[in-house]
Amino acid sequence: MAKNYRPGFTYADFASQFTAEWYDPDKWAEIFKASGAKYIVLTSKHHEGYTMWPSTTSFNWNAMDVGPKRDLL
C-alpha cells in the first residue's frame, strides 16, 4: 500500500476506482450453466456495508452512488 498509494489512502478510497467495466451477468450465467453449476452465491453486500444496488439506507456507499454508477444486482 505504502509503495503504490498516497499516505492515508483508505479502503473507502478504492470505491471510486471500482468500475465493474467487465461485469456481464448474462455472460456469467452462460458460463455457470455450461459448467454444470446448480446454484451460485453472489456477494451483494460487503462486510463494510457497501451494497451492490442503489440503497437509501447505505447512502453514498453503494454501487449506484460511488463506483460503477449502476445496479449490479
Automatic annotation (TrEMBL):
Keywords, in A-Z order: Glycosidase, Hydrolase, Signal
Annotated Pfam families: Alpha_L_fucos (PF01120)
Q: Does the keyword Hydrolase apply?
A: yes
- Stretches assigned to the Glycoside hydrolase family 29 N-terminal domain: 1-72
The record's Gene Ontology biological-process terms are:
fucose metabolic process; glycoside catabolic process
GO CC annotation terms, alphabetical: lysosome
First-tier enzyme category under EC:
hydrolase
Q: A Gene Ontology MF term for this entry?
A: alpha-L-fucosidase activity
Query: Could you say which EC number(s) this protein's record lists?
Result: 3.2.1.51
Output the SUPFAM superfamilies linked to this UniProt entry.
(Trans)glycosidases
**Per its UniProt record, what InterPro entries does this chain match?**
FUC_metazoa-typ, GH, Glyco_hydro_29, Glyco_hydro_29_N
Q: What does this protein do?
A: Alpha-L-fucosidase is responsible for hydrolyzing the alpha-1,6-linked fucose joined to the reducing-end N-acetylglucosamine of the carbohydrate moieties of glycoproteins.
What protein family is recorded?
Belongs to the glycosyl hydrolase 29 family.
Can you name this protein?
A: alpha-L-fucosidase
